[in-house]
Amino acid sequence: MDLYFYLERDSPLHRLHPVAKIAVTAAACTAGLLLARPLHLAAACALAAALLALAGALGNLRRVRVFLALASVGAVAVWTLVGRGPTPLWLWTTREGLAAGVVAALRIDLFLLAGVLFLSVARNEETVAGLGRLGVPYPVCFALATALRLAPMLVGTGWSVKEAQRARGLDPDRGLPLARLRKHVPLLVPTFLSTIRMTHHLAMSLEARGFGAGRRRTSLLAYRFGRLDAAALAACAAALVAAALLRRG
Fold this sequence. Notes:
Blueprint: H1 18-34, H2 38-54, H3 58-63, H4 65-82, E1 88-90, E2 93-94, H5 95-121, H6 124-133, H7 138-167, H8 177-184, H9 188-208, H10 227-248
Antiparallel strand pairs: 1-2
């Protein structure tokens, strides 16, 4: 089971400078906050899906399709139930609440699409390098990159523990929902113990390699800005200006 989203491709998005990749993701999220109409947000989601297709990462989108659907339905349901407005829809719900739910769902989808796109085209090393070029302290960059790396490892550890228990005769996915939930509780202890052991090994490895011993750092990877990066940054700026104008309009 592959838990990582990065895909080794030779697309234009993969060849971007790490700062340009971060800028594209930040621009998509900022545009999602600026846009306030469903049609505009739907167009932004379609553009993000087109970028995923350009990067050859539609397979990653299929991996999160259930989460996308659940997040969208949940946002629409919550905002429809709690939203208020002058136009009644059904019982205490209003059309304004439904519209707000659709906008919230599209924003969540855009954020998720932007995140999947970034994880599909940027390695952890590129994330650290890009944030470092933007002035973020290296310990913060390293912590973020470690979190991105350990999260799939934690899920993989839980999956391995689950498969080990199934091999011993305990099937956590069989039975009623309450019974299945009760069977998953014993899986937490070995999962967290394995995670703590892995974190301890990581800390010892960092100490052995002199992490934090010097202020000046060198990097094996070298990144240079090119015309493609400049075009990407210009496109991000144009998209943000367009989103701001659409919000005013």
